[in-house]
Amino acid sequence: MRRDSIFYRLFQQSPALVFELLETPPANAADYRFDSVAVKEPKFEIDGVFLPPDTEDAGIVYFCEVQFQKDEQLYERLFSETFLYFYRKRDLYSNWSVVVIYPKRSIEQSDVEPYRVLLNSTQVKRVYLDELGDIQQLPLGLALMVLTTLKEKQAPEEARYLVTRTQEEVTEPAVSSAIIEMIKTIMVYKFTELSRQEVEAMMGISLQDTRVYREAKEEGHQEGRQEGRQEEAVELLLRQLSRRCGQLSQDLQERIASLPLPILESLSEALLDFTELADLEAWLENYHKGDRN
């Protein structure tokens, strides 16, 4: 399940969501903006950075790490990139804080002894999603996070509940539509063997009531949906490649945008092993050689 992209979209849609995990969020939490950054020499990639608004008073910069797989050197990397970023931006921020999100405690790095002072400080918050409580009692934003961790047997019922709750509680149509779209996205990633229509049917959503249906109708039903998926995949892939390999030339962006959707999906898996632009260019060359043959 591609949780990185899901949490990226969650935080991009609602940057203040991360502050719901903290006991003492900043007073201006609603004014923060979310970004993802790469720090070079050495190159580090930070899952999410929450930047305070530009004011005369320097604010606190918040770093967020979403970790769903065991990594026995997570804290080595996390604190290295945090301190390096803060060092280079020291004149912009008054302080820093880190939020690490785990599905459960067993995923956390085993040896934390070298970092016990930091981990036990108020500047670092570790969140275990399975300990947040009953999903039906949580704020909607946190409930979406927990939904990503549920087993396939339990997820459909909770997803249907969240859809109903959204329709009842969220009065602004655009916000309600965005939340329901996120629920569907989580379920599509969770049930990869099902089509989007099958997922919607499982959740009890009428296609006529969804943004997906309206867009498809306007763009020509199936062809429109395919084009929408293509554009979304290209946008996400270009962002990931820029984070991992650096700025892409216009030519490279156009070559990637022209790839068929199945090839884009293959590239999204292959890029995990890329470290520089040369790796991307070699991959594209191999693909085009195979296509010609």
Summary?
This protein is 50% helix and 13% strand. The protein is an alpha/beta fold and 293 residues long. It has a 5-stranded mixed β-sheet with strand order 1-2-3-4-5.
Structural features:
12 helices, 13% strand, 293 residues, alpha/beta, five-stranded mixed β-sheet, single chain
Structure class? alpha/beta
Regions with pLDDT < 50 over 5+ consecutive residues? Answer: 219-224
Distance between the termini: 33 Å
- The topology string of helices and strands comes to HEEEHEHEHHHHHHHHH
Which range best describes the helical content: under 10%, 10-25%, 25-40%, 40-55%, 55-70% or over 70%?
Answer: 40-55%
Count of runs of 4 or more consecutive helical residues:
12
Question: Biggest sheet: strands, sense, closure?
Answer: 5 strands, mixed
Instruction: Tell me the strand order in the biggest sheet.
Output: 1-2-3-4-5
User: Which overall shape is indicated by the principal axes computed on the Cα atoms?
Assistant: globular
Q: Please compute the radius of gyration using only Cα atoms.
A: 20 Å
**Strand segment count:** 5
Average pLDDT over all residues: 83
Beta content comes to: 5-15%
Task: Explain the overall architecture.
With 293 residues, this protein is an alpha/beta fold. Among the domains are: 1-131; 220-280, no CATH class. It has helices spanning 3-13, 74-88, 116-119, 140-147, 155-169, 173-190, 196-203, 211-219, 222-245, 250-257, 261-270, 277-292; strands at 33-39, 44-51, 59-66, 93-102, 124-128. Strands 1-2-3-4-5 form a five-stranded mixed beta sheet. A hairpin with a 7-residue loop joins strand 2 (44-51) and strand 3 (59-66). Mean pLDDT is 83; it is low at 219-224.
